[in-house]
Structure formats: C-alpha cells, structure tokens
Amino acid sequence: MVALSEKLCRNDTRPQCGRRSRKGRFGRYSNSSAASESSVNAVAGNYPNGTTDSLWQGWQTMEERNPFGGSGSTDTPIKQFIWGTYIDECIQLNLLVAAGPQGLPAGAYYLLQDLLYRAAALTNSSGSIVEAYDTDAYGNTLIFTAPGADGVWFTDDDVQSNYGANSIIYCGYRYDPETENYYVRNRCYSPVLGRWVTRDPIGYAGGINVYEYTYDNPAVGTDPSGRQSPGIALEEAIAAGNVQEVETILDAVGDVGVLSDEQIAAARAFLAKDAKCLAIYAAYKALDCRGCRKCTTEKEALANIACLTAEIAGRTAYVKLECDYVLAGSIIFGSAKKETGHKKEIVEKTVALAKCVAKAAILK
C-alpha cells in the first residue's frame, strides 16, 4: 500500500506524475482487488475494481478508457467529456458503456452546474435527472443515484452511493470517490481536511508553507494553475492595481527571502503612489467647483476662481503622476482612455477658469 500522497499522484496528470500521450496528458489509476502498489483495498466503501486510463487536453479530461478492454478488445473507451467555453464547464458526458452503481445505459448525459460550476445533477437526453450531487463550501461531496421511495429528487430519502457515473462535480474538478479528494490542476485537494494534500508544485518559491494557497487569502489572490510564484503574482497584482493582493503578498513573504529587493521596492513604491493618487483624486473631487455663469457678485466669481485653480492643480498633478496607470478603477476601463478623459477635463476646467476671470473683471 503506497502512501496517500503517492496514490493521489498516480491519478494526478501533471507531467511529473504521469505519462504524456501524443494527444494530451495521460494518467492511470488502478483500483484492483489484487495486492499491488496502487491497491486501495484499505479504503472503506463499495467501489468497482479495475484500472482506468484518462486522456487529457490541457486540464480537461477528454476520455476515460479501460486499458484491458472488454470482449477480447484492448484499450476500450468507456466515457467521453465535452466542455464549454470555460475551463471547468463540463456540459456533456457521453457514456460508451453502462456506468455507475445504477448501471446508467450508454448514451449522452448533461451536467447541470451553478454559477461556481458545482454540479447539481446529471440528466439524460429527455431532461430527466439520473444522478444528483450535494457539496458544501469546502467540497465535501454526496452522490445520489436514485430519488428514493417517494420518486422525488432532492428529498431526504434519495439513494446515496459512494460513487457515480459522473466524476466532474465540485467546481468542475474531477472527484476521486475512493479518497474523497479532488484533482485541481497541479495539486490534489481534500474537502474533508479543507486543505491541499500535495505540496505546492513550485516548492518553497511560494513561501515556507508548501500546503498554502494564495497566502491563505483566496478572497483577494488567485492562482489558477497552482504554479504562480510570488514574484509573478506580485507583478500581476501591481499591473492590475490590486492593492489588497500586493499587501497580502508582502505580508506573507516580504521578509523570508522569496522576493528580491527590487520586487519589494517596486511593491512599496506602488503602494505609496496608489495612496498619493487616491488622496489627490479625493481632494479635487471634493471641491465640486462650478463655473461663473450664475455669479452675480465679484465675491462669488473670485471664490469660483480659487476653487477652479485648486481643482486644475489637483487634476494636473494626478495626470502628471500617471495615476490612471496605477489605480485599479482606471486600469479596468483602460488607462490610456481614462488619461485622455482626464486631460480633456483639465482643458474644460481651464476654459471655465478663464471665463470666471473675465466675469470677475466685469463684476468688479
């Protein structure tokens, strides 16, 4: 019996864990009743024996095969998966042979996913539910293969099973029912533990904790591949104007030698510039200056002149600092476009100031 992490790695289709076929990534998983290196007989529950080969395109499972075949054949395809436009959007499961504890017949089945790409049910071509799933926030998974005595799905008497015909369940990731773990890109995740059970593939380049994800702050940081180094993450966060992620990375690994002095200096300079730009923006927006069209006294005109002068100075400083290339709000809509707009506003405010000066001279 191999260690759990080794067993997981056997079905983890990273290049360092499996073989590569000419069509894509190739992984093999064995659940044989015979004692072998990959035996999982110690795992409780009723699971089918056998070996499954998986063909991958990038991070998506495209086909499962029985390498020992059936009816005298070898390397027999048993399942095929069709994906949508998003990497975790599995939209169709084609069974080429009967599958699942309920013995679903060969045919096309369709996966119903929510906005987080968590599977809720599997339906047949008629739209009838044939399998249902329930996952909590951490991915702990329950599989139901029949509606129970009342004939209604999603009620308390639904028939629960250890495995199903479909394995794409939590957030579009592949489920391993024997270990109750999920294969997530470069790592394996345990919903039961609420943590990774394989080390960070980039090792200590991501920090001293090799079982961490985005520095324990997934609400702010992202790492879709699981291989992003702190230096690259920091550069991307700065480019996006993501202050929270920059601060998170500095707090997590800023003093453990993972980042270079230049990267740390760049991050601190970004944070300082971001704060300065926000202060300038807030100051000139708070002025709320108006033109002198409705001014009836010299005092009103002079007050508006002072206001517009201060606002123009603030807007000019904002543009000079290139704040539109630092602040996230401008970056999202296009820094160059926002900068052009702010320059246009400076011209408009300058024209308004000139008119106020002329109006003040008349009212003097």
In a few lines, what is going on in this structure?
It contains seven helices and 15 strands. It is α+β, with helices and mostly antiparallel strands and 364 residues long. The longest helix is centred in the C-terminal third of the chain and has 29 residues, at 335-363.
Features:
single chain; 364 residues; alpha+beta; 4-stranded antiparallel sheet; disordered N terminus
Notes on the structure:
With 364 residues, the protein is an alpha+beta fold. The chain is 32% helix and 22% strand. The protein contains seven helices and 15 strands. α3 packs antiparallel against α4. It is elongated and about 95 Å long.
**Radius of gyration over alpha carbons?**
30 Å
Task: Return the average pLDDT rounded to an integer.
Answer: 83
Based on secondary structure, the structural category is alpha+beta
Strand percentage lies at 15-25%
Order of helices and strands: HEEEEEEEEEEEEEEEHHHHHH
Q: Give the count of helical stretches.
A: 7
What is the helix content?
25-40%
Q: How is the quaternary structure best described?
A: single chain
The major pleated sheet works out as:
11 strands, antiparallel
Q: Order of strands in the sheet with the most strands?
A: 1-2-3-4-5-6-7-8-9-10-11
Give the uncertain stretches in residue-range form.
1-44
**How many strands appear in the DSSP assignment?**
15
Overall 3D shape:
elongated
Distance between the termini: 96 Å
